[in-house]
Amino acid sequence: MTKKTFTSKPPQYQENPSEPDTSLPPPPYTPQETTPLIPGGPSYAGSSYAPSGPSYTGPSYTASSRFSDNSSTAGSLPSHFPRRNRTLRHAFRELRRDYLLATYHRALDAVAARGWRPPTLRWPGSSRSQRSSECGHEVDGGRRRERVRVWVKGVRRWGRVGEEKRRKRRRVILCCNLLIWVLVALGIAVFISGRWANEGGDRWPAPPERKETVRVGIVGAGPAGVSAAYTLSTSFKSKDVSLEIILFEQKASIGGRMVTNHAFPKERLGREVHPEDVASGQIGGNSLRNRARELGFDYRLEKKLIADEVGFFNGQDIVAKLTRPMDEMSWRTWLTLVLKYRFSLWNAKQLPKGTMKTFDKLLESRSTFERVSDMTKSAGIDGAVGLGAVARLSANGVGGDYIHEVLRPQVLRQTGQYVTELSDLAISMGLQREDQCSAGYRGSFARILDNFVQRSRAELRLSTKVTSLKRELTVDGGRSWVLELQKTGHSEVKSEVFDHVIVAGPSSSLLKHIYHDEEVFYRDLFVTFLVSTKELDKKYFGGSDNIPSQILPIQSDRLRSDLEGIHEISYVGDTFGPDLNAEAVGKLYRILSDRSVSRQQILAFGGEAVLEIYEENIEHAYPLTWPRNGKFGEFKLKDGLWHTGVVETIGSSVELSWVGGENVGRLVARSLGRGVPRKQADIPKMKQVPQNGIMK
Ligand SMILES: Cc1cc2nc3c(=O)[nH]c(=O)nc-3n(C[C@H](O)[C@H](O)[C@H](O)COP(=O)(O)OP(=O)(O)OC[C@H]3O[C@@H](n4cnc5c(N)ncnc54)[C@H](O)[C@@H]3O)c2cc1C
């Protein structure tokens, strides 16, 4: 080891220097004799472990000088130690080291005396060379340490390389695993597809190249058409097939046969005649109402109609008066009627109850049927549709004048047919409605249907008549249905191609060249509205001061010719001008008849005060519902051609048509296959109807 001597003048020690002067070199070392560090301790020179190389030449302090910090002894301390506390700390550390080293070497001597090789002592904080020289292992230890250092470096490098390799190896293993799993999955898929192909042939559908669009045309936007559109759209959802539903309605508004077009414009009478004024009756059952409620669309009867008192007119007198519903009749009226018709009145009231209870099950059912006969069997009403009304009336003890004077006019008004023509179910439906028919919806019925159309996302084309229906070959060799369409007021006819066509409602003219069996026959109805400034002629109706708001003429030879074919004359309500506080412009009456009513006829009982008359012919108003057994017709007429109207072979009501439309909607969805019901969340929210039932 080279001994270094600093020749520059050593700096003077300062008591409390402001900044340590680290730039100054350490003080020169003066070689001294090896003396015991601790009085009585071992001397290095005498130790068998004394360094064999160059001897230790570092400073040697006496114990007294190390702990002394006064100025007189300051010269014996290292002059570059700047602070007292630092000096003390250093001195203490030195002392501790010396003491421990001395103790250690004493122990080494003892161990060496027994022939053991001691380990190298490492002293934290001391320099390597100092430690080595102190321990007497400077040369060998240095080499060994150098070797170890090189070895550690190598290990580190090797470790780093190994880590990378390991990462790479892990990645390769992961990829191999994935590949194996993919191969296994592919193998399973190929195996299953092979088995399926062997078993069922086409059970493995080829993936479509692009989303196929199925076009469904619905003829008629009455209850059946709307319900078919709504049910089809909500019960079919497919990733591969998109539905395009188009509703064609020949009239300017939806709602079907019981909704008239606005008869009187507001400008002429100051009050718009609501479409439903023609029906003005409660919708018989409750299925449509329940369906609407399920969708958060609650509607209620807006108000009681004035036509709650019914008079039966035989040409000379009003022979009987009833109140609707019968339960609200006064005991005096009951007494008069019971005296006249005995128990027939009560028995007739009870007649529809049992049959309609069973029928309501059909209305609430969500099952799908191919044929109407399956429907009637499943609901347990095949007996009621096969039994004649006359047999049922006599079995229930209804007879005598009651049938001729009360029941017949009631049934004629409801069904357009005579008692002898009807089945038990048809007369029950008519009588039930007759007893409830005391309130109206005043336009909200059409709005309810409109909401269903919106929810179905079907395209509605009003004032578009389907003039013909043909099955034609398409370019790709398939067969489709071609509808010829004509807009109201236009002579031009356009054609459109559809995959499926649903004829919703009575459309015998469209179907007659396609479908002959189980045809549904209809009777027409004429609706006449008249506005008069005065009430009906009292003298004409028997001279009574109090003319009932609804008159049902009893059709017989005794009836005057003016009333021939007339089923009903009803007071609907007052018509007002723009100022509702002003006096009413006139009174609105409605006449239902099986033939057109002339102005002379109307003037005979309406008087000279009649202001306006409007007549509308409702084609296919009443289906003929005679008692039938066995077959009633199928909902599917041909491949891709469906008919809801077959349900009308058993009866006619909004609810029954609604159920028929639902059934066909489900059948079409089923025939399209692969469809799954749309989630409730997918269906757009329906507009809420305010409590009074009127929507803005
Ligand atoms: C005066 C009257 C009052 C009634 N009152 C009640 C009552 O109070 N309660 C009750 O439950 N039932 C009542 N009904 C019966 C009820 O109206 C029917 O049962 C119901 O309307 C039948 O519905 P639908 O959809 O099957 O047929 P429809 O209502 O007849 O609907 C068929 C639709 O198809 C349209 N259409 C037909 N042919 C074509 C074509 N070629 N192109 C385009 N469109 C076409 C028609 O214009 C019509 O809108 C009443 C019936 C009448 C006549």
UniProtKB/TrEMBL annotation:
Keywords: FAD, Flavoprotein, Glycoprotein, Membrane, Oxidoreductase, Signal, Transmembrane, Transmembrane helix. One of its GO terms (molecular function) is prenylcysteine oxidase activity. Residues 1-16, 45-76 have a biased composition (Polar residues). Its cofactor is FAD. Residues 1-82, 120-139 are annotated as: Disordered. SUPFAM superfamilies: FAD/NAD(P)-binding domain (SSF51905). The chain crosses the membrane at residues 172-194. Gene3D superfamilies: FAD/NAD(P)-binding domain. Residues 328-671 form the Prenylcysteine lyase domain. One of its GO terms (biological process) is prenylated protein catabolic process. Belongs to the prenylcysteine oxidase family. PANTHER family: FARNESYLCYSTEINE LYASE (PTHR15944), PRENYLCYSTEINE LYASE DOMAIN-CONTAINING PROTEIN (PTHR15944:SF0). This is Prenylcysteine lyase domain-containing protein.
